[in-house]
């Protein structure tokens, strides 16, 4: 029985990885072994940093809310505690957007919390 090698699938796998490595510097873009390692590492970074991105945005929202609250004489923790007790259910993303782009609406929320 002759030897059977699935070259079509092998080539497709390699083409897929080399396509992902497009734009990399030097041999990372066109040498299979180097490109495979570079793409694997890039995928690990992408997975890790999708999580990090969420943390970064949350901290940015907190900074913006804090700045908006302090303009009205409250700290961030007082403001968030007041929101809970006043049963105002707005998330940090929305509050940060209000504090940045609609200060009068944010001021109305702060007055309600006070």
Automatic annotation (TrEMBL):
One of its GO terms (cellular component) is ribonucleoprotein complex. SUPFAM superfamilies: Ribosomal protein L20. Gene3D superfamilies: 6.10.160.10, Ribosomal protein L20 (1.10.1900.20). Signal peptide: none annotated. GO terms for molecular function: rRNA binding; structural constituent of ribosome. One of its GO terms (biological process) is ribosomal large subunit assembly. The keyword RNA-binding applies. InterPro entries: Ribosomal_bL20, RIBOSOMAL_L20_CS, Ribosomal_protein_bL20_C. Keywords: Ribonucleoprotein, Ribosomal protein, RNA-binding, rRNA-binding. PROSITE patterns: RIBOSOMAL_L20 (PS00937). It holds the Pfam family Ribosomal_L20. Binds directly to 23S ribosomal RNA and is necessary for the in vitro assembly process of the 50S ribosomal subunit. It is not involved in the protein synthesizing functions of that subunit. Belongs to the bacterial ribosomal protein bL20 family. HAMAP family: Ribosomal_bL20. This is Large ribosomal subunit protein bL20. It comes from Gillisia mitskevichiae. The lineage of its organism: Bacteria, Pseudomonadati, Bacteroidota, Flavobacteriia, Flavobacteriales. The gene is rplT.
